[in-house]
Specification:
The protein is an alpha+beta fold and about 375 residues long. It folds into three domains: about 5-110, OB fold (Dihydrolipoamide Acetyltransferase, E2P), CATH 2.40.50; about 115-150, no CATH class; about 165-365, D-amino Acid Aminotransferase, Chain A, domain 1. It has helices at about 105, 115-130, 135-140, 140-150, 175, 235-240, 245-250, 295-300, 320-330, 360-365; strands at about 5-15, 20-25, 30-35, 45-50, 55, 75, 80, 85, 110, 165, 185-190, 190-205, 210-220, 255-265, 280-290, 305-310, 310-315, 340-345, 350-355. The strands form five sheets. The protein has a five-stranded antiparallel β-sheet. A five-stranded mixed β-sheet has the order 10-19-18-11-17. The protein has a five-stranded mixed β-sheet with strand order 13-12-14-15-16. It is globular and about 70 Å long. The two termini are about 20 Å apart. Residues about 150-155 have low confidence and may be disordered.
Length: about 375
């Protein structure tokens, strides 16, 4: 479960121009608007709740009712505010809380997750198509769908890491610690995560002994392996770009597996901000058990019909502060005449990667 709420320290408090009742607090690398009347002080431990969180309908969060209890990026007196700063008193009494402690589950906070909703609809479709009457009946219940779909043995390939970059605000020390490191910068695309792979599996087993090997092609959404071909966007893109053939071209005898990950954009996905007809796919990860290809090396995929995410800079030094990096992320998309979602910053040698989201994008689309 992703950490959405945690105990953190207020790093700084600064005035907001032309604002008498509010001020700016920094928690980790996040800038949040707080009320002066709350009397927070630098060094205080607070509960910080990230954007894209859904808080419970309880008295402590009654002020969030008009926002449907969803924490979004907002702007007050020209100050961008990302997240909620709450007193420790919202936590159950009688316990000691430490800086950095995850309190997401304690507070009953869940993630706003439209992509996950699509996956749940896939589970519901599976329920509707299930021939076994007992299973079809049980699939009406969320607890059974989680067990049957999300936790079954092949729900996600164990050799692949899911795609979910950390936001720079959660690692504010990175600018100082990696000041001399060279990074690649690519555009962050607002789409739907997709993973495609080939893996070597035994052809058959006899009395527990494995014989031969064959290449198995797999298609995954963000959280699920989708073993059966269907008309979903993930399988449609796989067929449209002939991704299995692309992977077979690149896999070598010494590779146990090869993986391609990227974003699908288009009709029915994230309100289709890019105005795409049908679907399009942009790859951002390409690796085997032996090699991870950087964005420059991945460019060869373009000649096989697979686009890679736009490379904005091949050699980049981090700017001195998180706010400076956020300012750098602001700009237009290279794909269409819209605001870009942000940037992804990577160094493959050190295995460092994180995302910097454009606040103008979040404000425009209510995120």
């Amino acid at each position: 479960m992703r950490e959405l709420a945690s105990v953190q320290k207020i790093v700084s408090i600064e005035p907001i121009p032309n604002a008498d009742a509010i001020e700016k607090a920094t928690v980790l690398g996040w800038e949040c608007v707080i009320a002066k009347s709350d009397n927070y002080q630098v060094g205080d431990l607070v509960v910080y709740i990230e954007i894209d969180s859904i808080v419970p309908d309880i008295p402590a969060f009654g002020f969030m009712q008009q926002r449907r209890f969803r924490v979004r990026t907002i702007k007050l007196r020209k100050q961008v505010s990302q997240g909620l700063v709450m007193p420790l008193s919202i936590l159950p009494e009688g316990k000691k809380y430490r800086e950095g402690q995850d309190v997401t589950k304690i507070l009953g906070i869940i993630k706003y997750d439209p992509e996950g909703d699509k996956e749940r609809r896939l589970a519901e479709q599976k329920a509707a198509n299930e021939k076994n009457k007992i299973k079809r009946f049980l699939m009406r219940y969320p607890w059974y769908r989680r067990l049957f779909v999300m936790r079954k043995r092949n729900s996600w390939p164990s050799f692949i890491k899911k795609t979910d970059e950390e936001r720079i605000q959660k690692i504010p020390y990175i600018c100082e610690n990696e000041a001399k490191t060279k990074f690649e910068v690519t555009e962050k695309i607002d789409g739907q995560s997709a993973t495609y792979f080939l893996v070597r599996r035994p052809k058959f087993k006899f009395f527990g002994i494995k014989f031969g090997k064959e290449l198995v092609f797999g298609v995954c959404s963000r959280n699920l392996w989708l073993p059966k071909k269907d008309n979903s966007s993930w399988w449609t893109v796989a067929e449209q770009l002939n991704i299995e053939s692309v992977l077979r071209y690149h896999i070598k005898p010494e590779h146990n597996f090869i993986v391609l990950q990227g974003e699908i954009i288009g009709e029915g996905i994230q309100d289709n901000k890019y105005g795409i007809k049908g679907y399009d796919f942009y790859a951002f990860n390409f690796f085997t058990n032996k090699t991870r290809y950087n964005n420059v090396e991945m460019f060869g995929l373009n000649y096989q019909g697979v686009k890679t995410v736009p490379l904005l800079k091949s050699e980049f030094n981090l700017l001195p502060t998180v706010p400076a990096m956020v300012e750098y992320a602001i700009g237009q998309s290279t794909i269409a005449n819209v605001k870009r979602e942000g940037i992804v910053v990577r160094n493959y040698d050190k295995n460092i990667s994180f995302k910097v989201i454009n606040p103008d994008f979040l404000l425009k689309y209510g995120e």
